[in-house]
Specification:
Layout: H1 3-13, E1 17-22, H2 32-41, E2 49-51, E3 57-62, E4 68-73, H3 79-90, E5 94-99, H4 105-117, E6 122-126, H5 147-158, E7 176-181, H6 192-205, E8 209-214, H7 218-230, E9 237-241, H8 249-257, H9 263-270, H10 275-296, E10 300-304, H11 310-319
Parallel strand pairs: 1-2, 1-10, 2-5, 5-6, 6-7, 7-8, 8-9, 9-10
Antiparallel strand pairs: 3-4
Helix pairs in contact: 4-5, 5-6, 10-11
């Protein structure tokens, strides 16, 4: 099922649903770590699961002659395979991330063909991070510089337009496309209004829904939703939450994700003596956020797990309740 249909069904039924995001395991780790996380969160009837894609890392290794040799590696491979494995094992819809960084248009097309053959028809279209060591994002030759270009390529494939104009017996794909939104603006946007303009370009290009970057103040989300509506953005907006888990995230999260930490939360975390206390504070704060968002009528709340399930399990149990095998909520 397409994610937009899941969202519309939740809106129709006036039922807020639970969704979460997983990171592929580090290279050499076992996929069982993914399965264990899913099995802890499966009782809360996840609407879908996102699987992140991580672009390549660059390492420089000193050769015997003293010169440095450039090596390209991916520390978290397997997004497509993990997505297919989740659908086959659990029957839960998956949303693999697809990024511009490191992909040419031809490689993007091949990735989409693979997903289509596997019966995966939902993607989250992202530009992706700047390559480590570079000051600004640089697409590979014949690659996309912005997520809107990636959205347009996916839409063209949905219309049966492939890169190879000589291909015969073209079958259109049927992808549902999610894109990212930033309640506190993207770090590279000149101002919030321009950021909304860029978001509208992605929606006008064919994106079906928006999922937000993490935020810790619901007022930022509600204001963002209002500004999107005023700009003519009519697609559903899914809020994304991440519970705080360590004391150093007070400075790290604003630096990496350019989000503000509300003073009451910051003050409570700074008063903690250890990270166990921080996890408790972070979980309670996220529960409060989720309960308010649920009451406001959002159809789905998306959680960034960062590969950890225990705090998300606590939040989901409090906010969504546990679904039994019979489908009844306890």
């Amino acid at each position: 099922m397409k994610i937009i249909d899941i969202i519309q069904n939740a809106i129709r039924d006036r039922k807020c649903r639970f969704a979460f995001e997983l990171l592929p395991p580090l290279k050499g780790d076992n996929i069982d770590t993914i399965f264990r996380t899913i099995e802890r969160l499966q009782p809360f009837d996840p609407a879908y699961i996102n699987v992140t894609y991580h672009r390549e890392d660059v390492k420089y290794i000193e050769r015997p002659d003293g010169l440095l040799e450039k090596h390209i590696t991916n520390r978290r491979p397997g997004t497509v395979a993990i997505s297919a494995a989740i659908m086959a094992r659990y029957g839960i819809e998956v949303v693999p991330h697809l990024i511009c960084g490191g992909f040419s248009s031809y490689e993007t097309e091949e990735a989409l063909i693979d997903l289509n053959f596997l019966g995966i028809h939902n993607v989250l279209a992202l530009r992706g991070d700047t390559l480590k060591g570079e000051h600004s994002f640089k697409p590979v030759p014949n690659g996309h510089a912005h997520a809107v270009e990636l959205v347009r390529q996916i839409i063209r494939m949905n219309e049966g337009l492939y890169m190879d104009s000589e291909a015969e017996q073209i079958t259109p794909t049927d992808f549902c496309i999610g894109v990212a939104g930033y309640p506190e603006k993207h770090s590279e946007a000149a101002n919030p209004d321009i950021d909304i303009e860029f978001l509208k370009q992605k929606v006008d290009a064919g994106a079906d829904y928006i999922v937000t970057q993490m935020f810790f103040d619901n007022r930022k989300f509600f204001d963002f939703a209002d500004r999107c509506l005023a700009a003519g953005i009519r697609v559903p907006i899914i809020p994304g939450l991440k519970p705080m888990t360590t004391k150093n995230q007070i400075s790290m999260l604003p630096q990496i994700f350019h989000v503000d930490i509300p003073q009451p939360l910051a003050k409570a975390v700074l008063a903690c003596e250890n990270n166990a206390q921080v996890r408790t504070i972070g979980t309670e704060w996220a529960i409060g956020q989720a309960e308010e968002l649920k009451k406001s009528g959002v159809p789905i709340i998306h959680f960034y797990t960062m590969g950890k399930a225990d705090n998300i399990e606590t939040i989901a149990k409090q906010v969504f309740g546990q679904t039994s095998v019979s489908g009844q909520t306890n």
